[in-house]
Specification:
Layout lengths: L3 H10 L4 H17 L20 E5 L5 E5 L6 H6 L3 H24 L10 E6 L5 H4 L2 H17 L4 E7 L6 H7 L5 H6 L7 H11 L1
Parallel strand pairs: 2-3, 3-4
Antiparallel strand pairs: 1-2
Helix pairs in contact: 1-2, 4-6
């Protein structure tokens, strides 16, 4: 647990304050133990993946691993109504663990290893609507996702890119914004809705 790729995100989140970063790590270790996180990668999430999916794969030009999701196609409400809210929260933990775990594997690989400690997140929002993505249980899902990220997997994402984002998604961002640290707010690429802006963003991503 004392590898650089593990420690750096906590130091980065607390502006290199070692004492505050240490307290954050201790809280994270307690949380992992209480939530049985060490065995979560072996859990069956197939039912939840019928509602939401996140994929890890590829790298950006700086060598950061890419996390991609078609968030606009997620139907969080479907899982909530099926009584799978607890499973959704476990999926959040599993997904957020997979990113840092992939970074750790890469850093130990003599061929692909490198000084990369963050991910790039790309989310395609085409199709997002308030009914399936912003119900009460849906907002709770996004709240838990954001809280876990800020306190247990901090500063692990270099930049969040939102593609094809409808203005309705602003309701979700406004809900989780109070949980964002300044670093996360900075990592959010500007939301752009008009076609010219989308073309500019596409050019930057390429």
């Amino acid at each position: 647990m004392l590898r650089d790729d593990f420690l750096l995100p906590f130091l980065r989140a607390r502006k290199l304050d070692a004492d505050r970063a240490s307290s954050m790590i201790q809280a994270m270790v307690t949380w992992r133990r209480e939530n049985n996180v060490d065995s979560i990668l072996d859990e069956d999430v197939s039912k939840v993946e019928k509602c939401i999916q996140v994929r890890h794969g590829g790298r950006d030009k700086s060598g950061r691993l890419i996390v991609y999701s078609q968030m606009g196609q997620w139907d969080i409400r479907k899982c909530v109504l099926a009584g799978q809210s607890a499973a959704l929260h476990r999926y959040i933990i599993k997904n957020q663990l997979e990113g840092p775990a992939a970074i750790a594997r890469r850093s130990r690989n003599p061929v692909t290893g490198g000084n990369v400690t963050q991910l790039t997140s790309i989310m395609d929002m085409q199709g997002f609507n308030l009914r399936s993505g912003a119900c009460l249980g849906c907002l709770q899902f996004f709240g838990v996702w954001t809280y876990n990220y800020e306190f247990y997997y901090p500063a692990s994402v270099y930049k969040y890119y939102f593609l094809n984002t409808p203005s309705s998604f602003k309701a979700v961002l406004d809900f989780v914004k109070p949980l964002h640290t300044p670093g996360t707010s900075k990592a959010l690429a500007p939301l752009e809705f008009d076609k010219a802006a989308k073309d500019r963003k596409s050019t930057r991503l390429n």
